[in-house]
Design brief:
Keywords: Membrane, Transmembrane, Transmembrane helix. The chain is mainly alpha-helical. The protein is built from 15 helices and four strands. 52% of the residues lie in helices and 5% in strands. Helix 10 links the parallel strand 3 (216-219) and strand 4 (246-248). Residues 3, 5-6, 8, 17, 19, 21 line the site of zinc ion.
Length: 317
């Protein structure tokens, strides 16, 4: 194993490196080691250039831990083939039955071994890492925008005009997007459905009143949907949204199942808003008005699903 502090290679499994670094994970019995976690964080932060959430880190973990099943399946087929030839030779029909059963069990085990670690288990491991203060400084773990940021970048948006409102279902993701300056890049007012951050409530209302049909783009995980989000927005921001201005670019389980490339990467169909590859979210929210219009005409769900398939042909970090 490698010490994440001095990067020295250590023989066997240790609890402490000679440089003084104390390991958080017991690499011998746990599926993690400290160096691996450090590297995951570096990837999630795009080499320390971008803020990330725990769910975004999990998404990177899912991708790095996905293995191809082709080699193990070929191995099982050859091994079971030879084994069944011997069994059938020795036991005839009974041999064939035993061989078939063995084959089914082996294939099931191979598929099971590729099942990803759950977000709950991953969170438990990561909590230990964060509690020991080993986490990367780009981690966003608490919503902090109760007050406007000191340099008040939100006012800058209004200097060149926000041309859309982006509403997400998780306040933490608002922090992450704003820290990464996605509001500047996509000229968007970014808020969460529960009225966070509070200091942007008036701007939300003003923007809606200033421009007719101001696009309101929704981004959400699979446990949310358009109807619930619109209701929450209208209640928490005290506004009324027209159906034609709402662009639901949120994630639905059926879409993930249909978007093969995405499912292959994730191996899960339920996800939170920040669990999908980060650049996908930001590309969705920064689409120009005509593209948003296309999505509305096509049906946002279908358009998003095909968009997801296309965009993931590229490798997302
Ligand atoms: Zn060390």
């Amino acid at each position: 194993m490698i010490c994440p502090s001095c990067e020295r290679f250590l023989k066997g499994y240790n609890t402490q490196c000679s440089c003084g670094y104390k390991f958080i994970f017991r690499a011998k019995t746990e599926p993690f080691n400290d160096n691996k976690m450090k590297k995951l964080e570096i990837k999630a932060s795009a080499f320390n250039t971008r803020y990330f959430t725990k769910n975004m880190l999990y998404s990177v973990f899912l991708k790095t831990s996905a293995k191809s099943l082709i080699a193990p399946i070929i191995f099982v087929v050859i091994f079971c083939g030879i084994f069944s030839a011997i069994l059938i030779g020795a036991l005839s029909y009974i041999g064939l039955i035993i061989a078939t059963l063995l084959f089914v069990v082996a294939i099931k085990l191979v598929i099971k071994s590729n099942k990803p670690m759950s977000i709950e288990d991953f969170s438990d491991y990561y909590r230990r890492w964060v509690n020991a203060k080993r986490n990367n400084s780009y981690l966003v773990d608490k919503p902090k925008l109760k007050k406007p940021p000191a340099n008040n970048q939100e006012t800058d948006i209004f200097d060149y005009g926000a041309d859309r409102i982006v509403v997400v279902d998780d306040p933490l993701f608002v922090d992450c997007l704003i820290l990464n300056e996605e509001h500047m890049r996509s000229k968007a007012l970014i808020v969460s459905q529960d009225g966070y951050p509070h200091y942007l409530k008036d701007q939300f209302k003003n923007l809606l009143e200033q421009a007719e049909n101001m696009p309101v783009v929704l981004l959400h995980g699979t446990n949310q949907n358009k109807i619930n989000m619109v209701q929450a927005i209208e209640r928490n921001f005290n506004v009324k949204l027209a159906d034609t201005q709402v662009y639901d670019l949120g994630y639905y389980e059926e879409q993930i199942k249909q978007a093969k490339s995405l499912y292959k990467r994730m191996r899960i169909t339920k996800c939170t808003v920040d669990m999908l590859p980060y650049p996908l979210s930001t590309q969705l929210i920064s689409k120009d008005k005509s593209q948003l219009q296309d999505m509305l005409v096509l049906g946002a769900a279908a358009a998003t699903a095909s968009y997801v398939s296309f965009s993931l042909a590229d490798d997302f970090g």
